[in-house]
């Protein structure tokens, strides 16, 4: 089950990486943020908007997150962080 959960997360990160030329506020990107939030809630813990906002900040502040997320494409961590910021401001 852990492998399946990690693979699902990887699919979401890959989708973000494919959309990096799209503005973070674009509905497709925002739908991915929603999907990521739902993934966290389903498999880990209740991901409130406040928690998600904090995670988004950590994705660019912690080298471990940057390294793991940027494995999907340089700048993925920063893009996800920016998309989460928009989501938390508007949802």
Structure characterization notes:
The N and C termini lie far apart (31 Å). The longest helix has 17 residues, at 2-18. The mean pLDDT is 96. The chain contains five helices and no strands. The protein has 91 residues and is an all-alpha fold.
Present the secondary structure layout:
Layout: H1 2-18, H2 27-43, H3 49-61, H4 63-70, H5 76-90
Helix pairs in contact: 1-2, 2-5, 3-4, 3-5
Give me some keywords for this one.
91 residues, mainly alpha
Helical percentage = over 70%
- Beta-strand proportion: under 5%
- Mean pLDDT comes to 96
DSSP helix count? 5
Distance between the termini: 31 Å
Structural classification: mainly alpha
**Apparent shape:** globular
Rg, alpha carbons: 12 Å
- Which stretches are low in confidence, meaning pLDDT under 50 for 5 or more residues running? none
Main sheet specs: none
The tally of strands reads 0
Element order: H for helix, E for strand: HHHHH
Give a brief description.
The chain is mostly helical and 91 residues long. It has helices at 2-18, 27-43, 49-61, 63-70, 76-90. The mean pLDDT is 96.
């Amino acid at each position: 089950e852990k492998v399946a959960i990690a693979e699902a997360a990887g699919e979401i990160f890959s989708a973000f990486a494919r959309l990096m030329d799209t503005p973070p506020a674009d509905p497709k990107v925002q739908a991915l943020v929603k999907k990521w939030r739902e993934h966290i809630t389903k498999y880990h813990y209740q991901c409130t908007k406040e928690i998600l906002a904090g995670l988004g900040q950590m994705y660019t502040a912690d080298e471990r997150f940057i390294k793991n997320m940027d494995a999907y494409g340089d700048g993925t961590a920063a893009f996800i962080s920016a998309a989460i910021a928009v989501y938390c401001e508007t949802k």
